[in-house]
Specification:
Blueprint lengths: L8 H9 L12 H18 L6 E5 L5 H8 L3 E6 L2 H13 L5 E5 L2 H7 L4 E7 L8 H11 E12 L3 H14 L16 H10 L2 E12 L4 E5 L5 E8 L3
Parallel strand pairs: 1-2, 1-4, 2-3, 4-5
Antiparallel strand pairs: 5-8, 6-7, 6-8
Helix pairs in contact: 2-3, 5-6, 6-8
Pfam families: Methyltransf_23
GO molecular function, one term: 2-polyprenyl-6-hydroxyphenol methylase activity
Pathway: Cofactor biosynthesis; ubiquinone biosynthesis
């Protein structure tokens, strides 16, 4: 019997309902549009130029990061378990002539069984806090990347400050995100994510924090990992 899929039906429904607004920079997805240049720039500053490389974006949603990486010259596959956002991503790429990106409705674990060691770079951004078993996704990402390849994660820290900023502040006070976007209990401490990575054969090479200034309404990459943070890892050689 096949193993159950590592998905949360309520999470899929939540993002599917908003799928038609994914590429509206003034919609609920405005934060993703604003942080995308920062995370793309950091990925290339760590892993090097993406041009000509095979890249996988796990939990790609409507394709904001996947399409941006394709525009940098990468050959990108974006995967997700929500069908409506994938259709939005496919349509947007078609309408804007982005040829280097394609999309599939498949889980990271399923793809890992099909295509082990096929990707130079794997990204998994703002996704781990939305699945029942984040360690399983980390392990799948490690399987999918080539030895010596890079895997990037971003997620939310779990502490009182992150509850105050990421849920109370972002969802209820500043209304940067729809209410109910995140569940505090699913947030992941950097030490926990690093442990998942080590068990999967990934070595943590760099960590960055992502902060938001409500006065300037700008995001920035900093050394403060207390709320949002990114991890860069490398797959160890056999």
């Amino acid at each position: 019997m096949d193993a159950p899929l590592n998905v949360d039906a309520a999470e899929l429904a939540k993002f599917s309902e908003l799928a038609h607004r994914w590429w509206d920079p003034d919609s609920e997805f405005r934060p993703l549009h604003q942080i995308n240049p920062l995370r793309l720039g950091w990925i290339e500053s760590v892993a090097g130029p993406l041009r000509g490389r095979a890249v996988l974006d796990v939990g790609c949603g409507g394709g904001i990061l996947a399409e941006a990486m394709a525009r940098q010259g990468a050959q990108v596959l974006g995967i997700d378990m929500a069908d409506k956002p994938l259709k939005v991503a496919q349509l947007h790429a078609l309408e804007h002539g982005v040829a280097g990106v394609r999309y599939r409705l498949v889980s990271a674990e399923q793809l890992a069984a099909e295509q082990p060691g096929q990707y130079d770079v794997v990204t998994c951004m703002e996704m781990l806090e939305h699945v029942p078993d984040p360690a399983s996704v980390v392990a799948a990402c490690a399987t999918l990347v080539k030895p010596g390849g890079w895997v990037f994660f971003s997620t939310l820290n779990r502490n009182p400050k992150s509850f105050l900023f990421a849920i109370v502040g972002a969802e209820y006070v500043l209304r940067l995100l729809p209410r109910g976007t995140h569940e505090y209990g699913k947030f992941i401490r950097p030490s926990e994510l690093a442990a998942f990575c080590r068990r999967a054969g990934l070595e943590v090479r760099a960590t960055r924090g992502l902060t938001y200034n409500p006065l300037t309404r700008r995001y920035a990459l900093t050394d403060d990992t207390s709320v949002n943070y990114l991890l860069a890892t490398v797959k160890e050689a056999p």
